[in-house]
Design a protein that fits this description.
Two copies of one chain form a homodimer.
Chain A (H helix, E strand, L loop, with lengths): L2 H15 L7 E2 L1 H7 L4 H14 L2 E4 L3 E4 L4 H25 L2 H19 L3 H18 L3 H21 L3 H20 L2 H33 L9
Antiparallel strand pairs in A: 1-3, 2-3
Helix pairs in contact in A: 1-3, 2-3, 4-6, 4-7, 4-9, 5-6, 5-8, 6-7, 6-8, 7-9, 8-9
Chain A binds a DNA duplex through helix 3.
Chain lengths: ~230, ~230
DNA sequence: TTGATGGGTTATGCATACATATCGCCACCT
DNA sequence: AGGTGGCGATATGTATGCATAACCCATCAA
């Protein structure tokens, strides 16, 4: 394992967790000091993050955690909807019976979190549910595209599932997809996943628009109240 | 412009052109000597290429131009079909009349290359045609995903359009998509693009399978005869 | 008071030196 | 004769030094 990889992963974690927020500077020196490495691996970690889109580099001006505009957010959601629907259709035709049973178990476990409006627990369940579908698609490349897109949206996307109403609806929509899996209905499974992602996406797009607006009005501090 | 960026772009060009072939080593020292830079930007270029999937790095063992297995090729084609269809459906609903006219002009210009079975000229036309659709989708993120996927497949994909029969069929299929654009029929445009990419994809998958097979039998040299 | 200008500061970008793991080769042992 | 172990060579990974461009702020003029 290279030092640059560990630095990269730790930054990714900090962005996911919200410790690093869109617009925050990611500079070589502070990274090298925090992780006790020289500037070289710190710099390489930043470049890797830039390649995956998590940070944006300007020559001679350093890197900042990528801020997503409302337009970009809509574009990414549009793409994610398509990718998730495709993965779901592939999975609908390829999931083995025991994998569908596994999905049902996980879905049953998620009900408690959904009822309790426990967004932390629900997000953990949500990840497991979707991840099983990616694997079930038998398409590692497609799964990678989806994971990368979701990773880039985490800061904003996280927030959409903190809305209590959304959690309950999300769980119901998962159930609808699962029913289509049991029926082996590829087209219906795809459509239901498309609707599911779109539902979350609407919340997400609104949030990004709100953040963008707040950022324009009152500077970065203003986003605090929403995250 | 950073030195690492120019090095990266030149390597990308060499991979696209076939000067660098899957399995070829890409080492820091030779890059730094060829492009008259130090090892640092050469190394950074390699890491950027690795992030986009064009080369594969093994810790302490250097980088090689990514070799695509038959399974990976199928996965990438499956994904590309979905992405291109999505971009086409978006474009069908968003292209302005003058953009459709531009597409028609380009398509008309491509007829000559198609008739002459001039695969070089046809590939140039082909890129322009598809590129206009990506732009017409009004989704820069989706367009980026498609370009990245196509870039990763260039070495193999190039070859599919060198088949004379495929060139003629490809041009006809473009015409069918264009007709759907004129009719403003989103679903039909998407379906026709899906079929179009799939047609090329079949040739492509066969080719990768052949290369993989050849590689297993006779080592890397064996792929020479196909490229 | 506001704007422009210039110098100092600092972080990035590149070059280079050093550390270390991997690989190939050869001798030696079985 | 074939396999194994160690040694040398080489390339990667890391650290550090140097050059330069961008930023900040003070100073000055309108």
């Amino acid at each position: 394992m290279r030092a640059s990889d560990t630095v990269r992963m730790r930054i990714e974690t900090e962005i996911q967790s919200g410790a690093l927020r869109p617009g925050d500077a990611v500079d070589e020196r502070s990274l090298s000091e925090r992780f006790h490495v020289s500037r070289t691996p710190a710099r390489e970690a930043i470049m890797q993050l830039a390649a995956s889109g998590l940070v944006r580099m300007s020559p001679r001006r350093g890197a900042v955690v990528t801020e997503i505009s409302a337009e970009e957010a809509i574009n990414m959601m549009e793409s994610l909807v398509s990718l998730e629907a495709e993965a779901t259709m592939l999975a609908a035709g390829r999931l083995r019976d025991d994998e569908i049973e596994e999905l049902e178990r996980i879905h049953a476990e998620g009900e408690e979190a959904a009822r309790a409006r426990d967004s932390g627990a629900y997000m953990a369940y949500n990840s497991r549910f979707h991840e099983l579908i990616y694997v079930g698609s038998r398409n590692a490349y497609l799964a990678g595209l989806i994971r990368q897109a979701r990773l880039r949206m985490t800061f904003y996307h996280r927030s959409s599932l903190t809305q209590a109403a959304r959690v309950a609806a999300s769980w119901e929509e998962h159930g609808a997809v699962l029913a289509a899996f049991r029926d082996g209905d590829v087209a219906v499974a795809g459509k239901r996943m498309r609707d599911h992602i779109l539902s979350g996406g609407r919340v997400y797009a609104d949030l990004v628009a709100a953040l963008t607006e707040a950022g324009r009005e009152g500077g970065a501090e203003r986003t605090e109240q929403v995250g």
